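Subject: design request, 136 residues
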């Protein structure tokens, strides 16, 4: 009788530990300030920013929509600036500083210095904040 209880307790503890980092479905969130909004799926991540102190690279000739308002990457696509007519700024509830969410191998962490997202398999990703951005 003790063993099943211990197994159930261990399973609950394991699920409780894993659940905050990995979602069962795509997840959206905003930074605590509301300046950054992100969408995270199993093979795609996108974060848009409302206010920034930097300028994106020049708009590509083939971009017919808004450009540079965010950064995205996919399982097989490197991080790049967004060309889109929509936004992820209001993608979900605030993700507190120091918290991480994800779907599949895609993870995003909210930090006081901005949001960092990366693919845990390839290492590709980006950091975006009001002050700066980095593609990796």
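Subject: RE: design request

Done. Sequence follows.
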């Amino acid at each position: 009788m003790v063993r099943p209880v211990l197994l159930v307790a261990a399973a609950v503890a394991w699920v409780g530990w894993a659940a905050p980092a990995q979602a069962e479905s795509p997840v959206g969130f905003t930074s605590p300030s509301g300046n950054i909004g992100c969408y995270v799926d199993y093979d795609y991540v996108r974060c848009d920013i409302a206010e920034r102190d930097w300028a994106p690279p020049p708009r590509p000739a083939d971009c017919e929509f808004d450009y540079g308002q965010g950064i995205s990457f996919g399982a097989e696509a490197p991080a790049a600036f967004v060309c889109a007519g929509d936004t992820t700024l209001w993608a979900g509830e605030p993700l507190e500083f120091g918290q991480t969410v994800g779907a599949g191998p895609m993870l995003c962490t909210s930090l006081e210095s901005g949001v960092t997202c990366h693919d845990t398999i390839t290492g590709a990703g980006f950091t975006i904040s009001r002050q700066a951005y980095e593609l990796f």
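The CA atoms of residues 2 and 104 lie 34 Å apart.
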